[in-house]
Amino acid sequence: MRLGLGFALVLGMGCTSPPAVLRAPNTYNVDEQGVGLHGYDPVSYFAEGGGVPRVGSSDIVAKHQRVTYRFVGEANRRRFLGNPERYVPLFGGWNAWGMVEGQRMDIDPTSFLIQDGHLLVFFSGTFSDGRAKWLQRDGAELRQRADLAWSALR
To answer: What is the DSSP letter of 50?
Structure first.
């Protein structure tokens, strides 16, 4: 009798929506509040924003493709809103080297590269440095591989 009741409960559970933890992972690399780039200002990576990654303010934000970005000032926020595709990191803000390998991997927001006018962010740690690996290879070929992997993961 117990087995039958358990089986009935399992069948009944299949009729409801899955719990939140079973849903597909977020396409973008964001924190629990939906903030991308670990809170860094995406414009700050580019020459017009200073060329040095800086942490943005939680009071100066803009949203693009379900990701909230923070900015160091209103001028950077306006630049971003004028052309967000120029400033958002490629591959959903995931590690560009990891994307070459077809994996979503977190980043060190201070490890970056501007390639062909696009922001690439990388993981950098004791045992791995994605940016260094990227720079040792043909960036155009790596970008093609990462683009293919990103298309498959989306």
So the answer is: T
Q: In whole angstroms, what is the distance from residue 22 CA to residue 152 CA?
A: 20
3-state SS track over 98-151: HHHCCCCCCCEEEEEEEECCEEEEECECCCCEHHHHHHCCCHHHHHHHHHHHHH
Q: What are φ and ψ of residue 105, in 5° steps?
A: -130, 145
Determine contact, residues 122/134, Cβ cutoff 8 Å.
Answer: yes
Q: How many CA atoms lie within 13 A of 32 on its CB side?
A: 0
Going by pLDDT thresholds of 50, 70 and 90, the confidence category of residue 128 is: confident
Residue 17 has pLDDT above 60, yes or no: no
Task: State the average pLDDT over residues 123-150.
Answer: 94
Specify which residues 60 forms β-bridges with.
none
